[in-house]
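Workshop exercise sheet. Pairs work together: one partner reads the sequence aloud, the other fills in the structure field after running the prediction. Swap roles for the next sheet.
Pair: D.N. / O.F.
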Amino acid sequence: MIGDLDRACRRVLLANWRQRSTVPAARLYPHQWSWDSAFIAVGLRHLSPVRAQRELESLFGAQWDDGRVPHIVFDVHVAADAYFPGPSFWRSAAVPGAPGVPTSGIVQPPAHALAAWLTYRADPAAARARGFLDRIYPRLVAWHDYLTTRRDLTGSGLMSIVHPWESGMDNSPAWDEPLARVTPVPTTEFTRRDLAHGTSAERPTDADYGRYVRLARDYRDAGYADARRADGFAVEDPLCNALLVTGEHALASIAAELGRDPRPHLAAADRLTDALVATLYDPAAGIFFPRDALTGSLVRSWSVGGLLPLAVPGLPVAAELVKTALSDRFRLREACPVPSYDLTAADHDAARYWRGPGWVNTSWLLWYGLGLHGETSLADDLRHRLLERVRTAGFREYLDPLTGAGHGTDDFSWTAALTLDLIRSA
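Structure field:
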């Protein structure tokens, strides 16, 4: 049974490979996405370590001169109108310092350093022969430098996201409050492509999509300059900052492997961890909340992102996060994948994009964090239940956390890749 699932994972990853990178899903997402490629590389390392290295090299080949890694790298061989917003919307070619290939101008969570380190460890000899770490390390450093300087919009030491799409958890209720001040673009001014591949009940509303387009357009028209705008969106997100910390630990390991000094990365990880806990953790709630960078207020929305700092080595409040994950809000021992949003909330929606369904990537991060903090029994239980869910539902984009019903697109690459990693992590 596990052998059949392993082979099925491989089939999806092979079908979605496009010479230099992997598309998240052939129909709905026909280009390369940033944090998708990080998770895909984690699974690809079991299929082909060299392909996993190329996945990351392809993405970082489209890095901007300021260090940002765009959330989409567009395939010029795909029809220009296959995805919205496409290259003609983002207009990266007109921006000084953008790469020669068309990209978006926003970013996604920085899962890449961890992925690069895990990829290297899968076959160190092959990576050394190709000079993988030598090439990727300075690009990862530039990426983290961009996030910790240009994106520290409040002076707290934490990075901010300037668009919900940058969170990776695009449609989370955590963004409702800061999004409320954004005036939507009328639906007559854009054409959604996502609804051609999924029902409206599973996707963001037109009003929210109009807000997303407004924010992206305003950011583009400002030359992708990073600043707080009174009518805009800027949030310090627990998940993004946790991955930044985890990435600094990975960079320390990479630096040591290259014979460089790991201490600056470890010091950065300590500073970020202190800022993360001091700024975004609520001891009474036992969870991390996002902070609105414009108002300075915590957004008290119980999202799975608030649990995912568990992936940070040495996190001082790890035990409290585990208790919250076991509570009725997330039901870690029963729900699978881990719900993206509070099961007890009146607006929980088990089928709508990031407003309740579970995703394999966030569950993988929680599994990784449980193991990191010695919760091996919970980690093993989650791993077994995730494998059973995928075996039953297939490689769906997201699933009902209680029934296991599949939603979104199918043959989703990171579902296959991380399932393959879970299989091989026994």
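Discussion prompt: The first helix runs from residue 2 to 15. What would you look at next?
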